[in-house]
Amino acid sequence: MSRDRDDDRWENDYDAPIDATTLRLARQKVSLPAKFMIASGVFMLLLLFAQIALTVSGYDAQLKILEWSEQQQPPGPGREKAKQQVEEARVRDRNPEYIQAGIFGVVSFTLNLLVVVGGFRMQSFSGRTLAIVGAVCAIIPINSCCCIGIPVGIWALIVLMNPDVKAVFDAAKQLDRR
Question: Which one of 41, 97, 116, 147 is most buried, by most CB atoms within 10 A?
Answer without folding.
Answer: 41
